[in-house]
Every structure is written in C-alpha cells, then in structure tokens.
C-alpha cells in the first residue's frame, strides 16, 4: 500500500527541514517508537549523507515545508529587492530576532532580512555578527533556488551573488576627498 497517496508529501517533493536545508522525500517507512510502529517520511539531503524521518501523522510538528517552486520566484525577488523588515537598533534584540528568522528558514522572511541588511551594508557597512547573519540568509536562499531551472531562478541567483559581493559605501572625510582630486 502506498501511504504517500493520502498524505501531504509525495515521492520526489523538494522540502525544507531546518536545520538540514533542502531535501527530497524519497518514500515512507515504518519505525518502532516505544513499542508501536509509526510511519515516517524519509527525507534525503543531496548535499550530505544525512536523512531525516518526519512523522506522516504530524509533519508540521517538525517544521517541514515545501521548497519554493518556479511559481514563487517572482514574489521572492520582490522581497529581496523591496522587502521591509523593522530590525531593532539595539544589538541584543536584533540578534534574537535575526536568529529566529534564520532558524525558521521561511524564504520571504529571509529575503526581507537580506534586503534590510543589504541596505545597512550599503549605507554604513555591517558589524561582524550582522555580516555573518547576512551571508547565512543569502546561503539559505541560494539553496532554496539552486535546483530550479528557469530564467527567473538564474536572475535570483545572480542577484544574490551580486549582493554577496557588494562592498559597503564608504564616504571619505571631506578634507581627504578634496585632497585626492
């Protein structure tokens, strides 16, 4: 009996499971837990040898979700370029919020975070921990679109690469700027 016909995920579905990243549902299996057999999705992660087993009865409890598809890329690009995210100026509050966003792995939140941190980077440069978060958000988004094979996916990847390599705008003090002319 094919258990996948009546469940949320099908064999071959691309999924995201934090902290593993992008995986593929490769089937279901039964595993004993406390003397009872339970059915699990078996998820393989192509970049590693890791596997995860997600309960078919309650996959949402693990945070698993479908990976972005081609139809989602326009919205993702919009969030990357125009996303609004109110980040606290105080470091400890900002750090907590940023870590929650990174751990949650929701692509539109990651895109809005990337957009906001990019703004700050261009305006004044980022402190080290914000820069690490910025790069982590970019890497997570790159993973999300890496297996998609259309023109918009390539545009998103190119945009993320451009953002990754962008240098902060550093304004020279007035006397030095005038002296170098």
From TrEMBL:
Q: Does the keyword Cell division apply?
A: no
Asked whether the keyword Iron-sulfur is assigned, the reply is no
Which SUPFAM superfamilies would you find in this protein's record?
A: CarD-like
Transmembrane portions of the chain = none
Any Pfam family: CarD_TRCF_RID
Domain (CarD-like/TRCF RNAP-interacting) spans 8-118
**Which species does the entry assign this protein to?**
Deinococcus malanensis
Chain segments annotated as coiled-coil in the UniProt record = 131-158
Indicate what this protein is called per its UniProt record. Answer: Transcriptional regulator
Sorted UniProt keywords: Coiled coil
